[in-house]
Amino acid sequence: MKLSSKGRYAVMALVDLARFDDMNPVSLRDISLRQGISLDYLEQIFSKLRKKEIVQSVRGIQGGYILKRKAKEIKLTNIFDAVDEKVKTVQCKKESKKGCNGKLTKCVTHNLWDELENHINNFFEKKSLEDLINENFEKRV
Fold it and tell me: What's the confidence (pLDDT) of residue 106?
């Protein structure tokens, strides 16, 4: 299981945004420079985040982006969902009778990977942007 760069960069960018959000709207250019993420890629990511109402754009000279909700209310699962990131440990669909190996039954380790996927998704559901900001701050002190 591996998260795509889209999911990881969306989280990185939103943590960056949340750290500076209280002051003024944050430009994607600033996030791009601080995090080393392509500006074009950030524009694509923030378009999706805006559609899912995680961020709001502010126009003007001092424009940029702000969080639409408080950082503690934005869970990592919200972010992954917004950028179409799926955490999957098995190739088959959960509701399918057919297994990931193409046979009529699921593989002998299917339940193990399914349980792992549940743990990962529960972990992401419990983690908020605020948690990441606080953890990052505590490690620097």
Answer: 72
